[in-house]
Structures are given as structure tokens and as C-alpha cells.
Amino acid sequence: MAFKDPVVIFIVGPTGSGKTEAALKLAGLIPCEFVSADSMQVYKGMDIMTDKLPVSLRRRYRHHLIDILSPSKEYSVASFCRAAGKAVEGIIRRKKVPVVIGGTGLYVQALLDGIFDDGARDPKRRRQLERLASEKGLGFLYDKLCFVDPEAARKIDSHDAKRIIRALEVYERTRQPISLLQKKRRGLAQKYRTLVIG
User: What is the CA radius of gyration of the chain?
Assistant: First the structure.
């Protein structure tokens, strides 16, 4: 099995569905390295509950993004995408095929399609918007969102306080609708050929 252009293979599914076994069989067919897309395997010491591959097999078959963080540290989707993107680029530079293995759907989707992460977080403004929702009601904020970003408002439920506040926070910080900024996302699917097996 050979690939001309860089390709990134994703093996996805729930825990216990045979992802790792399939990946190891694939390693017998092509030169590859693995990138974990599991939100818990990044943490050191969570071996049993996350069904991590034994260290001996991880030494034999190179794995990335396993045991990289203390459980006391916070890890976000944005952090994962940055680290996984670098791992994939390194694997391709080494002339191997990156194989992303994971059961965390949000991580897989974000890596494939990209995420909206412009750093437009403003905790102070978010608290103000939360206070406004308490005082005037969530409907007031939703109406405001309908005015500044009708496209986002159509996709966000009128009772979803978190997403309404986030969309308004982004708009007030950037003066651009979040729906427009989200269209500028780029993930691995826009950079490489991808094959998703699930």
C-alpha cells in the first residue's frame, strides 16, 4: 500500500471498537506513526480508564500526544489541534503516514475541519453579558445576536446561553460576526488528502 501525495488516515470510533488493533495491523502494511485523538490519553497516569496501549508497544510503534500532561493541567481543543497539527507535519516530513486514532469526536472533527480560535476571549465582557442575561433575560441577548449576526442566530438555539454569549463576545471584540470568522477555519482536510475509517 503506497500513497503519492501526503495523506492523513483517521481511525475513529468509541472505546473498545477495535481502533488500536486496526491501527497496528495498518502499521504492518505502511510506514506510519500514530497521533492520539483521545481527550483523556493526553494525561499522565490515566492508563487503565483510557485503555492506553502498553508502553512497550508505544515504543515499537511511535505514538504522539499520549502522557504529555499532568491531570491538574487544562487541555483544550485548540491546544490539541496545534499539537496534533505539528505532529502530523513532522510525520509527513519523515516520509511516513500519519494515522490519527481516537474516540473523542470533537477532537477528530476539529482536526479535520479546523476550529475557530482567534483568541477573542474577553472574560470581563463575558461576565457583563452574563449579568445582562440575568437582568434583562436571555431573549434580550438573543435579539441582539439576531441583529448583529443573523446567520449565527439561525444556528444557535435561543436558550443556549453559552453559545449566544460567545457569539456576542466575539462580535464585540472583533467587530465581525462569528459566522463569518468560522468560515475561515482550515483543518487537515483542507491541507491534505484524508481517509476516515470508522
Answer: 20
